[in-house]
Specification:
Blueprint (H helix, E strand, L loop, with lengths): L1 H15 L2 H17 L6 H26 L6 H8 L1 H20 L6 H20 L2 H4 L5 H19 L10 H30 L4 H30 L5 H19 L1 H5 L3 H8 L4 H4 L4
Amino acid sequence: MQRKSFHTFCIHFANTYSIWVVLGSFSTFIFFSRVFQLTPNYWVAIALALAIWIVYTLDHLLDGYILQNELAAKRHFLHFNYKKPLVYILLISLVILAYLSVHIPAVYYPAIGVLFFATTIHFMINFMVSSRIKKHFFLKEAFVALVVMLGFVGLPLAGAIPFSLPQNFFYYAIIVFTLNASNLMLFSWYDRDGDQQTKTLSIASIYGLRTTGLLVYINLLFSFGCSVALYSTGTLQTAAFATLLAMQLTLCIIFLFPIYFRSEERYRFYGDLIYVYPLAALPFL
């Protein structure tokens, strides 16, 4: 029983405070820097991880404030209950992020500006536009997947001097976009009942479980197909291909075994964990 309780605590802690998201954004940035045969800038990697934690925490705080007594997820409940210390931690994190920005080469600033602008637009649409209007033009899962793709694939390339897109860049962009889209849609698929309860707009609450599940498969197939295409031409290293394949297979398994992964929100824990997989591949790249 103690072992199970500790396992449950780890799942809830990682899910609530976006632990895997932070480690994953750091490792994935380094991963694609190595894939593109660039020297990773660790200041940028740390700043990206911290910025993503700030965005996720702010998003959970705003969700918790809006939902309040209608809270459906434990992460929203905890963020709402502990909003004061979390706000202080956010302010400290912003100060640290400002310090890190001093060490970031100016060549990265345009790409960071694009990411900041896209993130701001996301927050404005998500929290200032009514659901009645949003459901006709704004699919948050696709928009977030696009922003994440720009951060994971685009930001490492911003440091290349002279700047140039690598051969088959759009294959890499499709791999990351569809992988992220399938992951976010998978979360929506699992969260559909809770989203309907709290009237939260998501792809599953708009189009239903069947269509969302189909889109998860389609995105995974595109991600896998582009990975195979790059690997078959010798463009993608074996370690990188194995890492992407492990990420894709993990999402397939999460989708195929809903009874196990729905319990304790394991789907979110293991879905976010895939972004940490690149750490294992770094010594081989």
